[in-house]
Design goal:
four-stranded parallel beta sheet, alpha/beta, two-stranded antiparallel ribbon
Length: about 300
């Protein structure tokens, strides 16, 4: 161990080192803050608008971005979004696939059962066991190796998903679909989707009672997003629909376009010969060129 004299001699050295580091930080902090703020005003030592994003979103991600932008404006806070490119966004669901309709009309009963019997307010919708995920993963692998089975799966998917022409057999081969783990849904997401279809309105989640809605939104009913599209003024919005999208058909995307146009939003609409999942893993050069041209705009 060090003797008292040695410990005493090391203290001034460490104190001097700390003072030198503090001086360096003080000299660097003004330059750092100027670089972040880009010359704009700051609040509380932080830049008021440090960045501006151009966002590309798909399906449910599109509705999430709408919620983000509108809620930020309602709260009086910046959303930091300069351009929105929305590929087949969710929100309006006038038309849904056939396989979704039984879920929509029975989900309230399922949720009531889970709340009263199992005491679960929210629960995951997924394949819960390793064996079930292994069988599903093995089935997806077999469909890729046997063309006849793959054609059968695609045909059934088109029948159940409103004629959607996406390569759903390829979607099941994505890396996050495996026996060790697979994506899941929340029961709240399913309930919200049912609400959107049954009410024919693009609105936030209904918590089930006026008191719960007041606690969440400061009003008895959930806000209707399409009535708040004026919050998007100043943000160019580009809506893209798939002509062969059976999950969110073009008629649903056109409802966004009409509502935004009526609210004075700078919005455009374009269609591609795609299914719902083709926007993500089967995108062709024409879509890439279109998105790149939009992202290059100031």
């Amino acid at each position: 161990s060090a003797c008292p004299a040695e410990r005493g001699s090391s203290q001034p050295e460490s104190l001097a080192l700390q003072q030198q580091q503090q001086q360096q930080q003080q000299q660097a902090s003004p330059l750092h803050s100027r670089q972040l703020s880009g010359g704009s005003g700051s609040v509380g030592g932080l830049p008021s608008e440090p960045y501006n994003l151009r966002v590309v979103c798909h399906s449910l991600g599109g509705m999430l971005m709408l919620i983000h932008c509108i809620q930020r404006v309602r709260e009086g806070r910046p959303h930091h979004v300069g351009r929105l490119i929305m590929l087949s966004p969710a929100g309006f669901h006038y038309i849904i696939p056939v396989m979704f309709k039984p879920v929509v009309y029975t989900w309230k009963v399922v949720s009531w059962y889970m709340r009263t019997v199992w005491r679960q307010q929210a629960f995951p919708v997924h394949l819960p066991t390793f064996c079930a995920r292994l069988l599903a993963f093995k089935f997806s692998i077999d469909t890729s190796k046997m063309p006849a089975v793959g054609d059968l799966v695609r045909g059934m998917a088109r029948l159940l998903l409103g004629g959607d022409r996406s390569a759903w057999d390829r979607a099941l081969l994505m890396p996050h679909y495996a026996a060790a783990g697979m994506p899941l849904l929340s029961s709240g997401q399913v309930m919200h989707f049912s609400q959107l279809y049954l009410t024919r309105r693009c609105q936030l989640f209904d918590h089930g009672s006026a008191a719960a809605n007041v606690a969440a939104y400061q009003q008895a009913t959930p806000p209707v997003l399409s009535e708040c599209y004026h919050s998007l003024r100043g943000v160019p919005v580009h809506l893209v629909a798939g002509l062969h999208d059976g999950v969110i058909p073009p008629v649903n995307i056109k409802a966004h376009h009409e509502a935004m146009k009526a609210a004075g939003v700078d919005v455009s609409y374009r269609e591609f010969d795609y299914g719902h999942m083709d926007f993500t893993f089967s995108a062709k050069e024409e879509l890439g060129y279109y998105i790149s041209s939009l992202l290059s705009r100031k």
